[in-house]
Amino acid sequence: MNLFEVNIRFVGGLLSAYYLSGEEIFRKKAVELGEKLLPAFNTPTGIPWALLNIKSGIGRNWPWASGGSSILAEFGTLHLEFVHLSHLSGNPVFAEKVMNIRKVLSRLDKPEGLYPNYLNPSSGQWGQHHVSIGGLGDSFYEYLLKAWLMSDKTDEEGKKMYYDAVQAIETHLIRKSSSGLTYIMGHLTCFAGGMFALGADGAPSDKTGHHIELGAEIARTCHESYDRTSMKLGPEAFRFDGGVEAIATRQNEKYYILRPEVIETYMYMWRLTHDPKYRQWAWEAVEALEKHCRVDGGYSGIRDVYSNHESHDDVQQSFFLSETLKYLYLLFSDDDLLPFEHWVFNTEAHPFPILRKENGSKEEKEK
């Protein structure tokens, strides 16, 4: 099984179910599952394998990942869940595993301040120096910020790593098109608008407004990627070259699989600015989902969002329920439903309470 997916979906879901319901069975099962995942960290560096046989405890990496490397977005997206597992179980081993990942990363040179997507778990050295805020890299950066927020803003290491990384991202990866659209880009990177806005409050004082503006610019670009399709739903990837802006040019990038990242950014931008356009843009997406993706058994992905005729892929991804619909519900709800001052969302949109310095989660659960 995939350590990353099991962690964000199952461990995250069980933790969230416990905090929202108080039912002991969810806490127990989250900790039991967390214990089953620990053998993945049995590598020379403690950087975990991507894939784990739970029965044998033997791990391995994806064969395509840069000479047997672990992937930044996978081993870097365990922190929130594992800190909560230690908090709820009283067993420090979970938090120790993810803090060790930080130690390994802190010892390495970062090319131009950026984190390559591949790290060899045996040598502790970077694989090929490919950098991305989309797939392979995305949620690593998100979890640096959220680790700081979840710690009641006491995790200074996470804070520094995040803001240093954002500075490098802005310097080396963010571009502006000839018509003024800010991009990184691809559907998966659209989450970054919400991330930049969520982190604006903790940015150096002269950068707070800038981070909100950066979030707004990315939200606008991602809305354009939706608006420029026939179905008003965004493609998997979109390009800025050869006179093309925010449009998918390759057939294998024109599909929409009910992804949440654009809606996620709208939700954060709405909560943090209350600019009504974010609700308007989100409602456009709701109407498009209802018109083009609704089928007898639920909702289906679309093979080509530029076509005038729907071709469904006959798959309802699990993140459609856990993320896309949840973010929409929160976007059209009052801000006191899972408020940001008390809750942090993991990368699968499962809410975790902020761990207060004095007494932690039990009090938070009541809020």
Automatic annotation (TrEMBL):
Top-level taxon: Eukaryota
The record's GO CC annotations read: endoplasmic reticulum; extracellular exosome; Golgi membrane
Listed GO biological process terms:
carbohydrate metabolic process; N-glycan processing
Cysteine pairs bridged by disulfides in the record: 190-222
Name of the featured protein? alpha-1,2-Mannosidase
Q: Where is the active site?
A: 5 (proton donor), 138, 236 (proton donor), 261
Q: What gene name is given for the protein in this entry?
A: MAN1A1
**Annotated pathway, please?**
Protein modification; protein glycosylation
In terms of InterPro entries, this protein maps to: 6hp_glycosidase-like_sf, Glyco_hydro_47, Glycosyl_Hydrolase_47, Seven-hairpin_glycosidases
Name the family the entry cites. Answer: Belongs to the glycosyl hydrolase 47 family.
Keyword Lyase belongs to the record: no
Query: What GO molecular function annotation could you give as one example from this UniProt entry?
Result: mannosyl-oligosaccharide 1,2-alpha-mannosidase activity
* EC number from the UniProt entry: 3.2.1.-
Query: Is tRNA processing among the key words of this record?
Result: no
| PANTHER family (alphabetical) | MANNOSYL-OLIGOSACCHARIDE 1,2-ALPHA-MANNOSIDASE IA, MANNOSYL-OLIGOSACCHARIDE ALPHA-1,2-MANNOSIDASE-RELATED
Q: Top EC class per UniProt?
A: hydrolase
What keywords are annotated for this sequence in UniProt?
Calcium, Disulfide bond, Glycosidase, Hydrolase, Metal-binding
Binding-site residues, Ca(2+): 347
Cofactor(s) the record lists: Ca(2+)
